[in-house]
Structure formats: structure tokens, C-alpha cells
Amino acid sequence: MQERKRVVIIGGGITGLTAAYYLTKQSHNIDVTLIEATDRLGGKIDTLKKDGFTIERGPDSFLERKVDAKQLVQDLGLDDELVRNATGQAFILSQDRLHPIPKGSKMGIPLEWKPFLRSSLFSIRGKVAAFNDLIIGRSEENGDQSVGHFFRRRLGNQVVDRLIHPLISGIYAGDIDYLSLNATFPHFKEVEANHKSLIKGLRESDNQTNKKNQQGQFMTLKSGLQTIVNQIKAELPQESINLNQRVTHIEKKNDSYTVHIEHQNEPIEADDIIMTTPHRVTEKIFSQYDFIHDFSDAKSTSVANVALAFEKDAIDNLPHGTGFVVSRKEQYRITACTWTHKKWPHTTPEGHILVRAYVGKPGDEEVLEKSNEEIEQIVLKDLQTIMEINKPPLFKVVSRWHNAMPQYTVGHLDRLETLENKLAEHLPNVYVAGASYRGVGLPDCIKQAKSVVQQIKQKMN
Ligand code: FAD
Q1: How many angstroms does the Cα of residue 277 sit away from the middle of ligand 1?
Q2: Global ipTM
Q3: Does the reported pTM lie above 0.90?
Q4: Can you give the residue ranges of every domain in the chain?
Q5: Where is the signal peptide (predicted)?
Q6: How many CB atoms are located within 10 Å of the residue 260 CB?
């Protein structure tokens, strides 16, 4: 008879939960133990229901194109819950005005000339600079480079600062002049290499893709993303879930590991460990190993968001669209805003408005240290530059996320490869997965968890 394997998963966010779910579902000779430091599962996923509103305090949706999140929802039998975002015009806030994102642009790269040339967002000089992409040819750089460097060379500073940077910051909340191109947008580098021009290459691939499916690109669950968490919780053996247990350190003992938990005398024994904590936590847990400290060189960014619920007549001139991001190098403190009731109508009761705005970016993270009232005032002041708010919100919900957005700086993938090689050498059967490593989005985290599950299963065969 095959011996049972003890797999301990550290962290009950989406990565840890996914690993626990697929391991339990797919293997009968594995004992899974999930250890979570706080009193709740879900990590960054946190849905709040209030007065008929569904408010996502963390992520609100996932990309449909990256299949692993949708697949997990389907595996959990939650297909009926899936809903796509309503599409609409998105804007850039610059100089106290909302400028429509030019039609036909992809992550800020202009694929249609007419709307780009007509755009009020750029000066003539800024527009002319973007044509450079068609003539400069491919870059000679072979190694990694920053996203900012790559796009500035091809499209000029204005398109980058006013359009590309705010859009990318909406995902990574970072400074694109430090962000690794290889770790975040390798596809753009490939397009440049194959077509010598981003615009030409992306146009060609756009023409080949099925234009029928150009409706919403994002999906969420009608009852909120927390439903994924709750469903996984319901499907796991309840004795495998350990809440309020903070792992302090892990020791290697011959071929197995001893997991120590704060305020507990009895450690947990494990054959395999899946670390899904942010890397700064993983570093502390394995602090005796020097190589673990070499991996990440950048502090994660802290952000906060404020959800504001209004009666419909509280805002007079709400623009037609789904939201906006804020141009860099301007005086605003908000970085993005979604008119949630338009993008996700199911979240908001009839006759109401739900707005969610973000603050916090590199260089302005101290905003998180302010009181809720101060953060609300900062957000309302910025929103009032473009919206006439004539009644106070029905309620406000401030959510703070300290050190929540990992920064994949230039060289990230090389450092990750070194980390994984060293782990295999010094700490066999210890795996790292989650937002610190191979993608911050929910589908990427889920994919990483599935990949570790596959590795563990393969070793057992
Ligand atoms: P986490 O969710 O951080 O889970 C790690 C878990 O480990 C936590 O539960 C934590 O309590 C636990 N832990 C920490 N230390 C210990 C310890 N010592 N012992 C035991 N447990 C410990 N992605 C999208 O795809 N779409 C979005 O719309 C989107 N929006 C976002 C909005 C915000 C505000 C944020 C912060 C992120 C957003 N993301 C979005 C990114 C995505 O939500 C996260 O990258 C993802 O949820 C991270 O999952 P994870 O399991 O890797 O980590």
C-alpha cells in the first residue's frame, strides 16, 4: 500500500485554497493541512454585503482570457454565478477633465489612428512621437528591461505617462520604470521582435482574433468573489482547515519538515510544504537560509480603496462610462475610480450608485496612515473635480491593503529561477506559489497553485 503524504499549505488566500482544493479532490493518499494566520479564509478576496450592495474590498473580478479562474469556478459548480462586465467608455483623468481612452487602443497602444489623433489627451508632439513605433525597428536589447523603458522608446513619454502608465498601474500599482517587461508583458516584447513594430504586430493579431467575443473581458460572481472561497471551504474536510494559526518558522528534519506555529507547543509535521504567503513572510519563516533573502529587492506597494454608495440623484453629471484611471505626474491623490453600478450592475440596488476609488502609489503610500475620514475626504475632493456630488454618500467603506501589491522589478524571472533552484537543492518538497512570484492576478495565482499540485502528484507516481 502506498504511504500517505502529509502536505501542509501555509496561507489561506486564493493560492492556498486552490492548492488545497485540487489536492484533496485529485489525490486520495494525501493528507492536506491548510494553515491560515487570520480568522478568515480568502486573503485579499473579501466581499462585503451591505444594505443590498455587494462591495468587493479587494479584487472585484478576473480576466476571462486567462482560463484558470473561470475553470476553478466551473469545477466548483458555480457556473450559474458567473457574470461578465458591462462594457462602456473608460476615461483618463488629466487636468481636471475626463478624456475618453481612444477607441481601438490596447493597453494604451494606439491601434486605430483616427481616434488617437482626435484624442484630447495628447499634444501634437505627443501624437507624433507615437509614430516612432512604425519606424524605429526592433530593439537590440536581449535581456530584461523596464516596461517604462520599452514603451517610452517606442511610443514617447506622453503616451506612456498619460495613458500606458495609469492603465498598467491599475494592475501592478507600481512604477513602470522599474517593472520587469519579461515578468509582466512578455507578449509585447515578442510582438516587437516578430513585427518590428508594436502597432503593426498587435493590429495583425487583433485582425486574426475572433472579433465576436469583444464584449466584457472580465468575470466575477453575482454573489461576490467570496463565494469561491466559501465553496472551497465547504468542499474541504473541515479538520484540514486551521484558522488563527500564524506560522513562525519551519525546520528541515531529514526528509521532512516541522512547522512551528505561534503560541502553540505542538508543531505540525509535513512531507511537503506549499508556501502561499507573500514573499516577505516566507522569508521570515525560512530566515535561516540566506538564499531566501536574495529573491525580492522591491517593497510591495500599499493601496487603499473607498467604496461610496449614493442615491441616484446625489450625483448630477455622472459621465457615461465605467470609470477612469488617473494620468501620472498630476496633483491628484486618487489613482483610479470605477462606477461599479455601471460596470457590475448586479452589485447595486435599483436607484443607487456605487463608486469605488483607489489611493496609494509609490511615493504616496503614507495616505494609508490617515484616518478613514481623511481618506474619504481626499477621495471626495478629487472626485468633485469631475462629478457634481450634491448629497453625502449613504455610507462609505475604506479598505486598506498594506504591502499588498508585489513589485516585479527588472530581473524578477531570473531571481525567481535562482530561488526555485535553491529551494530544490536545500529544501526539497518546499514550493512557493502566489502573488509574489508568477503573476498577481487571480487566474495567475490559481494557475501557480495547480502547477504545484501537479508537481506533487507527479512525484508520487
Ligand atoms: P493572499 O490573498 O495575500 O493570501 C495569503 C494568505 O496568507 C493570507 O490569508 C494571509 O493572512 C496568510 N498568511 C500570512 N502570513 C501567514 C503566516 N505567517 N502563517 C499563516 N498564514 C499567513 N487580481 C485580479 O485578478 N483582479 C482584481 O480585480 C484584483 N484587484 C485587486 C485589488 C486589490 C485591492 C488587491 C490588494 C489585489 C487585487 N488583485 C486582483 C490581486 C489578487 O487579488 C491577489 O494577487 C491575490 O488574491 C493574492 O492571492 P494569494 O493567495 O497569493 O495571497
Answers
A1: 8
A2: 0.99
A3: yes
A4: 5-41+227-298+408-460, 101-208, 301-405
A5: none
A6: 16
